[in-house]
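To: structure subgroup
Subject: Chain for Friday's discussion

All,

I'm putting the inputs and outputs inline so they're searchable in the archive.
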Amino acid sequence: MKTIKFIAFAALLMLSGSIFAQDAALDNRAKVLFGLKAGLNYSNVYNSKTDAFRADPKFGLAGGAFLSIPITKYFGFQPEILVSQKGFEGEGTLLGSKYNFKRTTTYIDIPLQITVKPSEFISILAGPQFSYLIKQKDVFTNTSVSFSQEQEFKNENIRKNILGFVVGINLNLRGVILGTRLGWDISNNHGDGSFTTPQYKNTWFQATLGFTL
């Protein structure tokens, strides 16, 4: 009877050791990982300089690549490069007339994030983000908007290089990464503030699905 109990206890130890070894092998916190991600932005603007301006949020696409570089098992560095759509739906008063339009701005975003990895399943990320404006599209939906108002928007001095900050959480599920983050611009959208169209800073919530390769 004692022999049977000993054999059962030894088998249990071997099984526990095997499970622990498998879990350790699946723990990628100390490994360099490259991956792709895609998802949605829910963006708006804040800190408008024009009192007669009101903005509503809008959805946009986001996607790109990331590189997870471990410093230790619990800390790391994660740079990314993303194509990211932001913008807003706005209405207000310009040159004495009301307007209503939708603005979509497309950026190349480069977040440089420090990662804290308390477990193999959770990562907390935060750091600065550098963005470069590559495309802007304005759609006017109010027929009362005049040609001079449209020209005011087209000729405005938009800043192309933007400094921002991002913070977020990743859920790591064995090669699949569910990510959420909040980001906001530190720099104003205008280069010198010489135009009367809305001056603002972007803010956005981002949700993505990623895969490590």
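Points worth raising on Friday:
Residues 1-28 form one domain.
The chain is about 15% helix and 60% strand.

D.
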